[in-house]
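PT: before anyone asks, these are the final sequences, not the draft ones from last week. 613 residues across everything. Please model them as a single complex and drop the result in this thread when it's through.
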Amino acid sequence: MAYLDICDVTLTFKGIAALMGVSFTVEQGTIASLIGPNGAGKTSMLNCISGRYTPDGGASGPCRISLDGECLLSLPAHRRTGLGLSRTFQNIALFKGLSVLDNLMVGRHGKLEYGLLASILYRGKAVRQETLHRRRVEEVIDFLNLSPYRHQHAGRLPYGVRKRVELGRALAAEPKLILLDEPMAGMNLEETEDMARYILDIAEEWGVTVLLVEHDMGVVMDISDKVVVIDFGQKIAEGTPEEVQADAGVVAAYLGTENAAFTGR
Amino acid sequence: MRGKCGLFFTSYPAEAQVFPSGFQKLMVGLFLLALAAAPLTLDAYLTSLMNLIFIAVIGAVSLNLLTGVCGQISLGHGAFLGVGAYAAGQCTLHGVPFVPAILAGGLVTALVGMVFGVPSLRLKGIYLAIATLAAQLVLEYAFLHGGALTGGAGGLLLAPPTILGFAFDDEFRQYYLLLGFAAAALPMVTNLMRTKYGRAFVSIRDFHLSAEIVGVNLFAYKLAAFGLSSFLAGVAGGLWGHYTGYISAEQFNIGLSISYLAMIIIGGLGSVIGSVFGAIFVTLLPELLNAVSNGLGAVFPDIAQHVVALREGVFGLVLILFLIFEPEGLAHRWRLVKAYWKLYPFAH
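LR: through. Structure below.
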C-alpha cells in the first residue's frame, strides 16, 4: 500500500463537481506535485486531505484517503496533525498577532502536554515543556534562516519571509507528510530558488513526504519525483515529469488544441 | 546601574521571563510596595475608588481574555459578573466561608458562560455578539425573577467578607482583600497567555482555519476561553457583591457589559496591562467629569445638572475618539512611552 493513498475521491458542492473520482498515490520520502489549470481542483484536493472539506460519502465505505495505512477521513481536521500531517496555505494564513517564534510554537500545539493548572501557574511541566519545544522550534528557525525575525510579529514581515514562516509552522509539527499549497506564488527568482532548496532538503534530509501544488512549472518539473495533473476535477495524467510533459492530454489542457472550437467572444 | 547596551540571555527560561531585566523587577516591586502603602495616605473615598478599580481590573482582564485574546465578542459579560455575585452570595448566606464561596461563584459562572459559549462554534463576530446579548437579557430576566435564589427585585443583602474570623468590614480592610485578588488574577492570565492555551486562543482569533490545521480543537478551546473568562468574571462579581454588601439585578445590566467592553477597547485588546489601564480609565472617568462640573459650577451655577446629563454622551465620545486615534489602546501608548524612555536622551 502506498504511503499516501488517494482513492476515488469525489467532492461536489450542490451539483458543482470539484473533484470527480480522483485517485493517485505518493510514496514515502518523495516529492509529488499536483498541477493543473486554475480551478482544476488542486486546493480542493488538499482541503480534502487536511480535513477542511469532506469528500462525498465521508468516512463511510472503503477508505478514500489514507496516510501510512491509517484512514484520515474518520478524523476531524485538528486530530490529523497527530498522524503526521501538516500543510501551508496559498494565501498566507499566519497568526498576525503572534511573533514568528510563537507562530512556530503553535505549530507544535499538539505536542505540548501540560494541563491548565501548570499553564496558569507556569511551574514544573509547563516550563520544562516550553523550554524543550522551544529548542525544537529553534532548529526549524535555523533551518529556514528565520533567526533575524524570531521576535517580530508575523503581520509585519515582508511577503517572502511570511511564506517561509508558514513553511516553518508546518515543519514545527514534525510532519511525516507536508502539503504545500503554492509556496512559490508571488516570489521572485531568488526566493523561488531558496524555497525549492528548502523543499528538497525537507524531503531528503528530514525524510518528509511532500505533496506540492504549484504553478511554477520550472520548479515542479525540476524537483518532483512524480507529477499528477488534474483538470476540471478529473485526473488526466500521472507519472514522472518527463512522461507528463510528453502527454498530449496535458498539453491540450494547458495550451488548448489546434482544432478546438473558438468559444470566446 | 551597570552600563549595558542590551539584554542578553543564555537560556530559554531566562528569555521567557515576564520581567526579564533587573530594573523591571525592581520597578514592579516598588509599585507593589506603593500599592500596599497607599491606604495610609488615602481617605475613605479615594480608597473606595481604588477598590472599585481592583474589581474592574479582574472583570476587564477576564473579558480581554475572551474578546481580546480569543476574539470571541461578548456582550453578556455584565450578566456573567451577576451570576458570580448571586452564586457567591448564596454560598456565604448558607454559611460557606468567603474564599471557597468566591471560587464556587466563579465555577458556577464558568459553567453558565460555557453554556452560552456553545453558539460560538457556529457564530462569529457580530452574530456571536448578538447571541451573547441574548445571554445578557436571559440572565437579567433570571436575576429579576429568580425567587429566593436571587431575591427578585429586592436583591440580596450580604455580610462583609470574613476570612478566618477577620472581618473585612471597612474600605481600608477591603482594599487589601481586593488588591490580593487582583494581584493574583493578573499573573495567572499573563501565564496563560504565554503558554499553549494563550497561543491557541490567539490562533483562533487570528486565523481559525489554520488554527484547526495545526491541531487546535476549535470547539474545546473556544469553550475553554468562555469558561476561563467567565470564571474570572464570576470572581469579580462575587467580590463586588460582597464589597457593596447588596446585590440587585440593575447592577448587572447591559450598561455594565458595555462599560467592560469600553475598558478593553480603551485599554488595548489582548493586553493584560491594557485591561488594567482601561479599568482605571473607565472607573475614574465619571469622577473626572464630576470634578470638572464642580469646578465649572463655581463659574456657571447651572452646569452641574447638564454635565450629569452629558456623562453618557462624553463616555461615548471618549470611546469613539479612542477608536479613531488610539485603536490599539492605552497599552500601545504605554509601549511607545517605554520605547521613548529606553533611548532617552539619545533618539538613536
